Amino acid sequence: MSTIPHPLDPLTPQEITKAASVVRSSFEGQVLNFRVITLKEPPKDELVIYLEAEHRDDRTLPKITRCARVEVLLKGKKGANELYELIVAFDRHDVIKQQHLEGKHSYIDAAYMKEVEEACLADSKVQIEIKTLNLPEGASVIVEPWAYATDGSNDMSRRISMCWFYLRLTANPDANYYAYPLDVCAEVSEDLEVTKIYRLPTSGNEKIHNETRPFDHRKIHATDASEYHPDLRPSPRTTTKPYHVVQPEGPSFLIKGQLVTWEKWTFRVGFNYREGLTLHDIRYDGRSLFYRLSLAEMFVPYGDPRAPYPRKGAFDLGNDGAGINANNLQLGCDCLGTIKYFDGWHNTSSGLPLKLPNAVCLHEQDDGILWKHTNFRTGHAVVTRSRILVLQTIITVSNYEYIFAFHFGQDASINYEVRATGILSTAPIALGEPKPPFGTIVAPGVLAPYHQHLFCLRIDPAIEGQKNSVVIEESHAMPINDPDVHNPFGVGYETRTSYIEHEDGFDLDLTKNRVFKIVNEAKTNPMTQTPIGFKLVPSYSQMLLAHPSSFHARRSEYGKHAVWVTKYREDEMFPSGKYTMQSMGGEGIASAIEKRAGDDDEARVRNEDVVVWHTFGSAHNPRIEDWPVMPCEKMVLGLKPVNFFDKNPGLDVAPSTQEVNKSVLYDGDAANALKRRHADRMSFLGEATALEACMDQSDNHSFIKAFQGLLQSAEDVMEYENDFTSDTAPNSLIAAFQDLSAVGFAYRRYNYKTSAKREFYKIARVCTRYLKAD
Fold first, then answer.
1. Catalytic (active-site) positions
2. How many CA atoms lie within 13 A of 353 on its CB side?
3. Are 322 and 316 in contact (CB under 8 A)?
4. Among 258, 306, 412, 587, which residue's Cβ finds the most Cβ atoms within 10 Å?
5. Using an 8 Å Cβ cutoff, are 646 and 527 in contact?
């Protein structure tokens, strides 16, 4: 068996170690802080040739050089950290490219945040400030560092961390300290020195001040109102009964390394420190659909206008990383059913491989009805249930959790679902203050500021080839008074389409049912006479609310429009630029498009290798129901075939049957069901005794009467045995009753002929023995 990794496989632990060794040799004698060691994906033109050869089952595949992209920090001449990017070619055991990224900053990780937190709490100035708060005895101060979101107040060439202060009332480490935000924050420099301390505003109109105020002890409230952890709350409800997902014949998917095959789908699973889960070479029934799908960025701008809160604007991928913040998913908790886990690999600061276990889970889910029709003339119904394949990853970034999942359907559709949960990031507000216009008071002295979550899904299509176009389709009412249009009753409407010719950003329009289709103009559906394609089913969202002149807007250009269309470029993977930490703006997708606008060859996107970017999210104006932990807020978008097939691609999914699905009837609680089951069994045994008593009597009428009673009892028993028989129990009882029922109905149908009488009695005795033995 070959041990050579596929060109799209994430780096192995051995490759991470090797890449670190190669880079060390380029910086002999210097202390290196390895920030990133990840796969550098092969050039697209080379990889496409490789993938096509692979799908043709060519005996010899093209050779592709496997490379790693490495980021390291080292101390410069002036003592500042300097960031370098290097490309390592494994076959040459050498650095083939090196770049000094002057003024750029790498992401932040938990280890660095811990250093910032400890340095901040240990600072003498901070200790003095904490003493002025006069905190309750036994309470502890929690410092939560955030990346500094640019506001124009500081030099961004060196890293700054903002430290927000909270109070934890108890020694329990799971206590919700967001319930007690303190009116203190501090700036910590790259050298781990506290450079500034602020006293925060505690009313809607107050500004930063230097007045020392003690903590208001009246803010302390009942734990039931602000604690979420079960150890700190009353006992949970007991009304929820167990729900088991059982697949007795195993799952329908097959896994070979990173290659997934399910139903008619095939694709490769990727994973990296920044994007987390990525999908590659996505095909349905062998036909190419998408080259690459990934979440490219997420920006969380806060809408509290009071300084220093405009510094709260988090790029949770660019600044923190979806991969390195991925949860270790738990069997039976985060995912249900038969689960396949994919591990991720990152690196330590010293360049050693670091395992991220169970970072991605893959499993199947029932998704309701796929399609159904009842013929009203015959009464015959055909119903097919939908099965979806789910790939899910969950990340925790400070207070928030995000659940990202791709859903593959049997109808050749792909849905991407984001769920936001976790705890609101809070700010202090004085008791008795009115609700400010930019937040919600969720507990005594606790303000939850308004904020947005803006995601960007990067869609790199390959609709039966790399040359694709994007079409805008709108639905319009047909004119009623136009002599050239036949619409005498005013009910007609039509679609109007326009091809996107050049790179640009676009908005959604519900009033026109605006749809964005990705099509292959070289491939026409013979029936519809239109190009084959897939359409984006968008997640309708409000775009960025910050003023265009703000740093929030300048840094997150993709938030201006819901859809962007660009030409593929190898170095254009992230809509806010490659390095978002303390970025100043001008490096995002809008700026890139503007720079290329005058060059028709560069800006043209029709019949080109295009990329579609979809911006979506939520304007989260917190409710009291989001406290103390937020129920999931769900956002869904889709990619659906449009005239790509010759019929419904889910038509060949088998109709649903009770025999397969094993659904049961509701009959009260379990105790009552058990009582009913026992009663039905006793009734059958009584009827069986009556049948035996008249078996040899010449009076056939008595036997028939006993037979009818037994048959009804058998039907009652079968209903409940189906409910209670487990997969491990023998099915002989059910089989025997099915035989009894079949012979019984035959006996009745043929007018109670004596020839079937003894066969029926024989099977009835078998059923009786099974019941007594059970």
1. 316, 400
2. 16
3. yes
4. 412
5. yes
